[in-house]
Amino acid sequence: MAIDLDHSRGGVSRRPRHGARGILSLLGALLCVPAAADDAVRERMDAATVRVLCMASAGDRLGTGSGFVVGNGSHVVTNWHVVACTAEGGAAAVLLAADREHLIPARVLSYDEHRDLAVLQTDRGLDRPAVHFAPIASVRKLDRVVAYGFPGAADDSSGADMADPSVTSGVVSRIYPRPAAPELPRLIQTDAAINPGNSGGPLYDAFGRVIGVNTQKALTVVETRDAAGARAEGRVPIGEGIGWAVASDEVLPFLERLGIPFRVEPDRVGAFGSLWHREPLVAALLTGLLALSMAGVMLAASRRGRAVVRERVTRVLGGPSPRPAASAAPAATLRTPSLRGLAGPYVGTTLPIAGDGIAIGRDPALAQLVIPLTFAQVSKRHALVGYDVSRRAFTLEDCWSTQGTYVNGAPVPAGQCVTLNPGDRFHLATPAVAFEVLLT
After folding, report:
1. How does strand 117-122 pair with strand 166-175?
2. Which of these, 50, 163, 196, 283, could form a disulfide with 276 (CB 3.0-4.6 Å)?
3. Structural domain containing residue 418
């Protein structure tokens, strides 16, 4: 059986561009390099992981678990079962150091009992960095992972720092499919050692991105006796290296609904990105060589580039200047990629799609095409529609919307980007806000 890992004392995205900027964009996509150096990532992982306490209303039971900082530094994500004592009048707190000054009271801002998730709001800022997330789409079996948290057994060691998280490493053992029951969470199985007290702590990938929330371990309850012969209950493993984490994809809509900002790095880190993470100097050298090679290939592949090369070589050798090339035939008339409103506040309006595309949502700070607040089902930044000139195709990205984006009636996976053809239609949360992409 699987038992939650709380520990108790006393019984308890991007589209490619062209030209020089396009080269840089393409390189970034190929490399998928993390923004921070290895040491900085480790420091952020360490600082973002905090101990979460829950004192029963009678004051006779103190539960301890783990959590991690999100948003602006005054919110913490943990498991609901870690702070469930608050439902019966208990009090939650976050411990940053082993003294009363650093015991920060917190209240449960929101929770989901079925997904075993809770978001806490602390009485004051924690002065800790927020974690970065990666979706389950970026995770593969056998990926390296590290579990951070505060296993209670480690507290029994002499001189243990109550605010210093423990770290264990392992691999992703299994990625579970989405459950048939929509209220249940999607899980990631890992062999990283997690124990009672790890509940609510982050499961990081090898690049310091949270891919899950440590929740359960394969344990069973057995009867034990203390030194005096008194009966008690204890929990022992029923399998080695079997633990589960709630996937980060379950956390992100939670934060979206609460208006808590978060950072998602959706790309899977490739072999080159892994090299950059381990050996940044070597990777930087290879990146420079790759950039020069690509620039040379692009120059040699175009008629103008070959003409420039011939002219420079002729000047160096002192020969006559080449004759100007004949004027190229007029280019065919280009059609403009456009977005047309089919229903809602922009019905009948046609807008050209250029540059980085058009973000659609209710928040003017996050979207270029602003939907009125009366359309409450639409998220603050709901979707991003663009046009990929190199592929001559439209793109539509769901920006982790709360109630989904639908293309021709079919849902777009949360946080994913899909390709559209001219004439395809999509709506945001409700058919009352609908659009069509076309070439005009």
Report:
1. unpaired
2. 283
3. 337-439
- What is the pTM assigned to this prediction? 0.58
pLDDT of residue 273: 56
Give 29-96 as a DSSP string: HHH---SS-HHHHHHHHHHHEEEEEEE-TTSS-EEEEEEEEETTTTEEEE-GGGSGGGGGT-EEEEES
- Strand 410-411's sheet: what is its strand order? 350-352, 337-343, 430-439, 425-428, 405-407, 410-411
Same domain, residue pair 67 and 169? yes
Q: State the pLDDT at residue 323.
A: 52
Q: What confidence score (pLDDT) does residue 15 get?
A: 38
288 and 396 assigned to the same domain: no
70 in Cβ contact with 107 (< 8 Å) = no
* 238 and 119 both lie in a single domain: yes
Residue 118 near residue 110 (C-beta atoms within 8 A): yes
Q: Contact, 429 vs 403, CB < 8 A?
A: yes
Q: Phi-psi category of 259—alpha, beta or left, where left has phi over 0 and alpha has psi -120 to 50? A: left
State the first-to-last Cα distance of the chain, in angstroms, to the nearest integer.
60
Count up the domains in the chain and report the number. Answer: 3
pLDDT of residue 232: 63
Q: What is the pLDDT of residue 233?
A: 64
Task: Return the H-helix or E-strand segment holding 439.
Answer: strand 430-439
Separation between Cα atoms, residue 74 and residue 123, nearest integer Å: 8
pLDDT-flagged residues of the chain (< 50) = 1-3, 7-37, 275, 325-332
DSSP 362-404: S-TTT-SEEPPTT-TTS-TT-EEEEEETTTTEEEEEE-S-SS-
pLDDT at residue 333 in the model = 55
